[in-house]
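Session log. Operator J.P. requested a structure for one protein chain; no other inputs attached. Running the standard single-chain path with token output.
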Amino acid sequence: MIAKLSMSRIGCNIGGLSVNILTYADDVVLLAPSWRALQQLIEIMECGVAVIYVVCNTSRTVCKAFLPLDKRKIVATSFLPLALNNVSLHYVSEFKYLGHIISNKMSDDKDIMREIRNSFFCTNLLARRSAACSIDVKIALFRSSCLCFYGIALWSLYNKSIYNRMKSCYNKCMKSSFSFCKYPSVTSMLLAVQLPSFDTVMFNSRISLTNDLRSSCNNIIKHVCLILNV
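Structure written below.
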């Protein structure tokens, strides 16, 4: 009870709701507005996990200070090391969490580049292994392997040129998978294989995420949706 009361006073204010911990399976994220508050949260977590005989992996635990989106605001960029189990934790500017690259600048450019590399890799692998397959089989394989973009619905802050590179990557992957000539009409190519454009894929992903958020029973998600009027 003491730990719960202490944690309730330490957290980031999201529209009047104090949020200090997010968990998914064995992954834990601690949120705090200051270095001191985050160190207190870590100490409370140490006491909590010791009760249930869980050990924190300090080699895979990192710290990150998010920079304000308003460039006029100046914040400190260097801090004393935070300690977990008497081990100093490293500070990073970006980190892959649940497959999504999160940057301290809140930019999705690095995650878009991750998806571009992944798309080319999957397409090249698919092209080699399905060269002798029929067009219907190739379409089915392309849908299952190259249209499963992970987390693209979360992209919200990115450079337009990076996003256009992702669209170009999508079209190039389709040309390579179905052996289209170098300069065909993108529209005719999409109609020939009955596949959506990348803008359509992006739109459908965002609609699906919005519907999932609206139907969620999680109090934090419901609160954020209320603030954002989702």
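Operator note: The first helix runs from residue 2 to 8.
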